[in-house]
Design goal:
- By secondary structure, this protein is α+β, with helices and mostly antiparallel strands.
- The protein is about 20% helix and about 25% strand.
- The strands form two sheets. Strands 3-4-5 form a three-stranded antiparallel sheet, covered by helices on one side. Strands 1-2 form a two-stranded antiparallel ribbon.
- A hairpin with a 2-residue loop joins strand 1 and strand 2.
- It is flat, with a radius of gyration of 19 Å.
- Its main location: nucleus.
């Protein structure tokens, strides 16, 4: 049985842009690292295996929770301390070590 959200159109309201400029969030510009734009990671929220690849749910510094994204492990080279802290607090969540162990047991190759 599939469940999907259903609601009546009477519950919808038109969008009105906020007229008070002070309430609009200001997002920080990207940081330049080796002539490439990068954004600073504030926290690692979760991890998962997606299409046989390790991904992390990232909260970006200066951005709202609505701007969180799933990022491949390879994109997070400059926040190894946050990754270690996340896995210390959540040892059962998927990690690079758990993927390597699973691939070794299956006889497969390790990617990234």
């Amino acid at each position: 049985m599939k469940v999907h959200p259903v609601f009546h159109t009477n519950l919808l309201e038109p969008y009105h842009e906020d007229k008070i400029k002070a309430r609009k969030p200001v997002t920080p510009p990207p940081i330049l690292v080796d002539a490439h734009q990068e954004y600073e990671v504030e926290a690692i929220i979760d991890s998962r295996i997606h299409k046989r690849s390790l991904q992390y749910f990232v909260h970006w510094k200066g951005y709202s929770v609505m701007d969180r994204t799933w990022e491949p492990h390879a994109n997070l080279t400059n926040c190894q301390d946050l990754l270690k802290t996340f896995h210390k607090q959540h040892p059962t969540k998927p990690s690079l070590e758990s993927i390597r162990g699973a691939h070794a047991r299956e006889g497969g190759t390790v990617m990234n």
